[in-house]
Each structure stands twice: as C-alpha cells, then as structure tokens.
Write a structure and sequence with these properties.
- This protein is an alpha+beta fold and 692 residues long.
- It has a domain of 268 residues: Rossmann fold, CATH 3.40.50.1820.
- Helices cover 18% and strands 34% of the residues.
- Strand 21 and strand 22 form a beta hairpin.
- Helix 2 crosses helix 12 and helix 6 crosses helix 7.
- The longest helix is centred in the C-terminal third of the chain and has 18 residues.
- It starts with 14 loop residues before the first strand and ends in a 7-residue tail after the last helix.
Length: 692
C-alpha cells in the first residue's frame, strides 16, 4: 500500500504576546503577511497536500457532483415578481455558472428582456459576484456593482435599459446598499473604510463625474455599519446605522435628494429599531403618512410602534411585546403590516391590517420549518409572497391574499430524479445543557432507519450574531441521506431562534454556552441512539467554524470528523488588531481583549490558543485568500498548530481558494464541486466512500 504523503511542516517562528500577565507564543504569526511569497507557497503546498490526501476520492467526488447536478433543474427561473407594468425575475441556463436578471412586459408571460447576464459580466474571471442590483423607480436604469476577487470591494455602474448602453458613470470602491431618488436622477451608495466597515453615504448625480459626488452622512463610531435602502412606498430613503446591539435611522425625502437627512430617533445604547413607511391620505398634501417601527426598546423580543412622518420620534405602540414570540423583521404594504415572527424556535408570520383590524397568525403544516419573505416589490397590494421550506420540503413560493386568507403555491423548486419527501423523516429533539437549558435540534434521517447508534450523522451549528439557523432543504444533502447518513442542526445559544435572551445567553461572557450546547446536542443524539461518537461529524462555517473548533478542543473524543469552513479560530489576535476588517464592530459580540475580564473570556475558548497534545479526529478546513471577514491566515495557522500538537494519525487538511473570499467559489458549478469534496470527505470518514 502506498504511504500517504507527508503534510507541509511550516517553520515555527515563535512570537510571544504578553497581555494582562498572560504570555502566549504564536508560532505562525508570519503567515499573516499576504504579500509574502513564502506564505503563498505554503498555501499552495497545503492545497497540494489536500489534493493528494483526497485523490482516492476522485471517483466519489465526481459521482457526488453528478448527483447534485442531476437533482437540480439547471435551466430554471424564479417566480416573476410584478412592479408596475413589469415582472422581474432571474433565470439560469444549463451549463452557465451565473444567473441572468430579466424582466417581462405586461404580464408574467410577456416578452422578456435580459437586464444583466452574470456570465457575460464574469467573462474569463475565476470569481464574480453581483453586489447591488437596483432598478430605478421609472424602470429606465439599473444600478449594479461587481466584484472579481471576493474582497467585497465593488465597482458601481449604471445601465440604460431601453438601449442596453452602459452609462459613463463608474464608481469604484463601493459596498452593499443603494437607493434611487424618485426622479431617478440621483443615486445613493455606501463606501467602506480601510477596515471594510461601510461608514459613508454618498450621493451621485447621474451624468456627472464621481469626483463631484457628495458625502451625505459619515459614521465615525467604529462599532456602527451604515446601510441605505428605499421604503417599499418609494417615498423615503432610509439610512440605518447599526452596531451589534444599537441602531439609528435617518430619513431622506426621495423627492428631494438634496434635502438634509432627518433622524427618526437618536441612538440609545442597547436599543435597536428599524423603520418602514405607510402613505398618508392622498387627498391631504400635508399628510406624509406614518412610520411603522420594529424596536427592542422596553421589548427584548421586539414590539411595533408607529409615529407621524412629521414627528418620527413620537412613538405609539401598535403591537405589544410578547415573551414567547420574537419579531425578526417587518414589511409594510398599503393595507397590511407583516411581522416575521418566531415562536418556540420556529418561524412564522403575523399580519396586522393598517386600519386597526384583527391581528392574525398564519398557519403552516410542518412544525420543523422555515418561513421567510419572498420578492414583494409592490406597495399597493393585498398579496404577500413568502418562501416555505423544511428539511424535507423543497423551497416553495406561496402567495397569500392577506384579506381572504386564500393561499396558492406559485412554485416549488424541482428536485429531479424522483425525489419523494415521504422517504425521510423530519424531527425536533431537545438536548439539555449543563445549566438545565433545553436546546432544540432539527433532525432529518431516512424513514425507518435503525435507532441503535449505528447510523452516521452530521451535526451542523452556527450560534452567533442573533442569526437563526433555520431548517433548510438541500439537494446536495440527499447524497448523504441516500447513503444512510442523518443530518441535524444544533440551535445553540448565540443565535436568535428562541428570542433575544437566547442570543444574549451565547455571547460575550456567556459564549461558552454555545460550545456547551453543541456538545450537549452531540451527547443527546448519541444517548438517543441516533448515532455514536465514532459515527458523528460536526460542520460549521465562519462563526460556526469557531463553534465546531472550540467544541473540538473541549471534546475531541466526541467526533469522528470536523468540517470547518472559513473558521473564525484566531479570536484573540484578531480582536486585538483594530486595523483588521470588522474588529472594532465585533467587540460587542465577542469582547475586547484589551480589557482584562474580556480577555479572560476569549482566551479561555480561542481555538488556536487552546490546542493541546491529544488525538484529534480528521479535519477539513477551508479558507479564502481574499476573505475580508475571516482572514485566510486564521484557518492556516490553526491547521499548522493542530498538526504540531495532535497525537493521532488522522489527516488534518486545509483547502484555500486562492482567488475567492468568504463565500468560497462564486459559480454554481464550482460550488457544487466544492460541496462534493466536503461530502466525499465525510463519507470517507464514515467508511462509506465505496457505497453507491
């Protein structure tokens, strides 16, 4: 038998760091020099080693890629969404990596025109991302932005839709978020600072050089991100300044682009709010309508208030706070407000008539599900489109008449190859953490599979930023399920599934709860005989990569394999460096290690700094060289340190995308190849590489 190749052994160059009386030696700090040819050569060597270690899986990877591809309708289109005389949609074509943005005239089946073709825009580039896509209120111009290396630095352009001609206005160095003035002569956009924090709102007049653009708002507090967008009524442009726990909204009259912004309510530390607009009486020129606001003021799970546009700070409650219901978002239509809510960890929809009628909750068939907004472009409509899916139900677009309650299915994402939802069972389990807290688990497995511990299982988690890891359908996951592998989501604290206290219970000083919850979920699944430790893998990305890496340090005996995608694992060093993207804004999420108490929290769990001499399971880590969110060197340093310390013989692999960022490969076929690698790695760990 051929011996496996030897892994790269980068030179350890110890650099001590002493802080608050604690000394830590960083042997691989030199990897943080992105411009160093030595660093780039090391990353390429890691890629070569990974390729060599998975070479025996080449046939399986191709099989898995073809399985994923065969289940997806490659030539497909979204449900056309009406706005005015146009119906907007996107569609994909077989063999092409990127979607086409289109519209149809007069009806959903009317004559079609392509507004942007992502494939033409991508050209020969190995990476392409469309950041902004905003059609002007008169439907005449589209503002769009592009990124060709994954750095999330976008170039903004404008295209005349009648002629297809590119306008001469080209603005580099922009970020997400944009809004048109009502007459389509002005466009508002954002710029990031050196730390990739969007902090400036700019105003551009079409037909003028970008050098003449003006800064409208600049946010100097480094904790806050700036974002801009239009209300659905298109009467107002709203600028939201948002930290991890505090927000502030400013209004700009869309009919007067040069008007000074007005603050809805001055920021108050720990209070968040988001605004939408309802029009007033059309017969009364002085009636500017109302703002409807979702706020956490005196309401950790959120409540709804309203105020006159002319006096935006005069809040009047219209939906009270509920301890058992969390409000995640708000949409405003002419006659209805739609609050995106969740109860007992499960998403739902609350509908409030704007005339003060009866509030009602929409009902759904599956207890383990996800309900989210679909594309709703029009303000003057009584129809709501929403997306519904579960671990066994493919993404489905529904339209509901908010007055009659009539609901119709517009489209369910096709799953080719004879997929039958009844072949699988979707369950909700509850683990119990060390402090007695019950942790929800969403689980899908082959129906009728044995419950004797013999089944392999992949456990996924995230648990940060109050983000919800709601159940989702995956065509790629079917390749695991069909081979007898179950899949579960651990809804750990730090997410927002069970309300604001759930988030606060897994951040800052309480962050250890997230890792303990994941371990408790793993132990629960083992105790319930859904799997056993040598048949259990964990997977997470970004902050979820931190989750699985910290749990790995604390209980390496509990897992057969680990997949950590762009993992945030060098927490202390990153949070100490204010020059890095996003560091200061993250202090309210993780803590500031310059403060002794907060350093102690971070130092206690930081994956890179808590590796010890023990047998680690097999590990696959990924990175993006141009990633502005989690620097490539975090997983690179982590993998090198793991290899130094492990007393076992399991492979520890790193795959770096040398021309991409946080999201990995940008094209859909490239992404399917990447997923096939992860699935093959997991199946090999379970001893199932030869099956099917």
């Amino acid at each position: 038998m051929q011996k496996p190749p030897k892994p790269p052994r980068p030179l350890a160059r110890p650099v001590p760091r002493t802080l608050h009386g604690d000394t830590v030696v960083d042997s691989y700090r030199w990897m943080q020099d992105k411009e160093s040819e030595e660093v780039l050569a090391h990353l390429r060597a890691e890629n070569d080693y990974t390729d060599a270690r998975v070479a025996h899986l080449a046939d399986l990877r191709e099989t898995l890629f073809q399985e994923i591809k065969s289940r997806i309708q490659e030539t497909d289109l979204s449900v056309p969404a009406p706005k005015g005389n146009w119906w907007y949609l996107s569609r994909t074509e077989e063999g092409k990596q990127y979607p086409l943005s289109c519209r149809r005239s007069g009806s959903a089946d009317g004559p079609e025109e392509v507004l942007l073709d992502g494939n033409l825009l991508a050209g020969d580039s190995n990476y392409f991302a469309l950041g902004l896509f905003e059609v002007s209120p008169d439907h005449g111009i589209v503002a769009y932005s592009t990124d060709y290396d994954g750095s999330e630095q976008y170039t903004l352009r404008f295209r005349d839709l009648a002629s297809g001609r590119e306008l001469p206005d080209v603005i580099p160095g922009t970020y997400y978020g944009g809004a048109w003035s009502r007459d389509a002569s002005w466009f508002f956009y954002t710029r990031p600072d050196d730390a990739m924090r969007p902090y400036q709102l700019w105003r551009h007049e079409l037909g003028t050089p970008p050098e003449s653009d003006a800064v409208v708002i600049q946010e100097d507090d480094e904790r806050f991100f700036l974002d801009v967008g239009s209300t659905r009524s298109e009467d107002w442009i709203l600028v939201t300044l948002q930290s991890q726990v505090t927000s502030e909204v400013w209004m700009i009259d869309a009919a007067d682009a040069a008007a000074a912004p007005r603050c809805v309510r001055p920021r108050e530390q720990g209070v968040e709010y988001w605004a939408e607009h309802l029009r007033g009486d059309a017969a009364d020129p002085g009636d500017g309508g109302r703002l409807v606001i979702l706020t956490t003021l005196d309401a950790p799970n959120g409540r709804l208030v309203e105020s006159p546009v002319g006096n935006p700070g005069a809040w009047k409650e219209i939906l009270a706070h509920r301890d058992d219901v969390k409000l995640d978002g708000l949409d405003a239509f002419e006659a209805h407000l739609v609050a995106w809510s969740r109860t007992d960890g499960t998403s739902g929809i609350t509908v409030l008539p704007t005339n003060g009628g009866t509030t009602r909750e929409l009902s759904f068939p599956e207890p383990v599900r996800t309900v989210d907004a679909s594309t709703n472009l029009e303000f003057e409509t009584g129809l709501l489109r929403f997306e519904y899916e579960s671990l066994v139900t493919p993404s489905s677009i529904y339209e509901e008449d908010l007055d009659s309650g009539e609901r119709r299915l517009l489209k369910q994402q096709p799953v080719l190859g004879g997929y039958q939802p009844d072949d699988w069972e979707s369950l909700r389990e509850w683990a119990v953490a060390d402090d007695g807290t019950r942790i929800p688990i969403s689980l899908v497995r082959p129906k009728g599979a044995r419950v004797d511990g013999s089944s392999p299982l992949v456990l996924y988690g995230y648990g940060a930023y109050e983000s919800n890891s709601d159940p989702w359908f995956s065509a790629g996951r079917l390749s695991l399920l069909e081979r007898g592998v179950g899949f579960a989501i651990a809804h750990v604290r730090g997410g927002g599934e069970l309300g604001r206290p759930w988030y606060e219970g897994g951040k800052l000083a309480n962050k250890q709860n997230s890792f303990g919850d994941l371990i408790a979920c793993a132990e629960h699944l083992i105790e319930r005989d859904y799997t056993r430790a040598d048949r259990l893998a964990i997977r997470g990305g970004s902050a979820g990569g931190l989750l699985v890496a910290a749990a790995l340090n604390q209980r390496p005996d509990l897992f057969r394999a680990v997949v950590a995608e762009v993992p945030f694992v060098d927490v202390v060093n990153t949070m100490l460096d204010e020059t890095l993207p996003l560091t200061v804004t993250e202090w309210e999420e993780w803590g500031n290690p310059a403060l002794p108490e907060q350093y102690a929290w971070l130092r206690a769990y930081c994956p890179y700094e808590n590796i010890a001499a023990r047998p680690y399971p097999r590990i696959l880590a990924t990175a993006g060289l141009n990633d502005p969110r989690v620097a490539y060197w975090e997983p690179a340093k982590w993998v090198a340190a793991l290899r130094d310390q492990t007393t076992g013989s399991e492979p520890i692999l790193l795959k770096t995308e040398m021309g991409a960022g946080h999201g990995g490969p940008s094209g859909r076929y490239d992404a399917w190849h990447e997923e096939a690698l992860v699935l093959a790695f997991l199946l090999d760990a379970f001893g199932l590489a030869a099956t099917r």
